[in-house]
Design a protein that fits this description.
Blueprint (H helix, E strand, L loop, with lengths): L1 H8 L10 H20 L14 H9 L12 H20 L3 H25 L15 H19 L4 H20 L5 H19 L2
Helix pairs in contact: 1-5, 2-5, 4-5, 4-6, 4-7, 5-6, 5-8, 6-7, 6-8, 7-8
Length: about 210
């Protein structure tokens, strides 16, 4: 069921009633980010952990743990995938048209592509030193772009406004777990959240 929708999202010209510029931007950004990631990964950081501003260092110290649970123990590492599927499931249940689904998938493509472009270009070392792809948080961006999709789907279904906007708490919890897990600085997560919200709402409303 989802294969034709996914193929439509990956073919901007076929997206009826969709702003073609937005569709081409989503696909172009995704292609550029994917290509850069395939051919280049920063071996040395432009911004080592030692250069983190006081704001980031203080928040990291506050949530420091003696035994980090690691990326695969992180709540976000598990929950981000069903959360990003949630808007599509809601749109199907709502009986939304194909354009709404394509908007959601294109918002994902744009966010993922932009995340990879910035991560690779900035080359900020992760707090735990595992690699140099800390800025900005892809999990955070993904959580909030999905949140925008869920909020939009609930609003189209005339759900209670309190229920619709409480969705942001779930996105925030997923993003925050990356700080607790020592995979990102707070500024990585805040920036990722901002990117996800702006991209998600923009695509959902066009």
């Amino acid at each position: 069921m989802f294969l034709p929708i996914a193929l439509a999202a990956l073919s901007p010209a076929s997206a009826q009633e969709l702003d073609s510029n937005l569709a081409y931007t989503a696909w172009g950004t995704f292609a550029a980010g994917s290509a850069l990631t395939l051919v280049y990964e920063p071996e040395s950081p432009n911004f080592p952990t030692s250069t983190a501003p006081a704001f980031d260092a203080q928040i990291r110290a506050y949530f420091a743990r003696d035994e980090p649970i690691g990326e695969f123990g992180s709540v976000a590492s598990y929950a981000i995938f069903p959360w990003m599927a949630a808007p599509i499931a809601l749109q199907v249940l709502n009986g939304d048209n194909t354009t709404e689904l394509i908007n959601t998938l294109n918002s994902y493509l744009f966010t993922l592509g932009l995340t990879q472009l910035v991560k690779t270009s900035v080359a900020r070392e992760r707090p735990d030193g595992s690699d140099n792809l800390s800025f900005f948080s892809g999990h955070s961006a993904g959580a909030f772009v999905a949140g925008a999709g869920v909020v939009s789907a609930l609003q189209r279904a005339d759900a209670n406004p309190w229920l619709s906007h409480s969705v942001w708490l779930i996105s925030g919890a997923l993003a925050f777990s990356r700080v607790v897990d020592d995979k990102h600085f707070a500024s990585d997560v805040i920036t990722g959240a901002a990117v996800g919200v702006v991209a998600g709402l923009y695509y959902q409303r066009h």
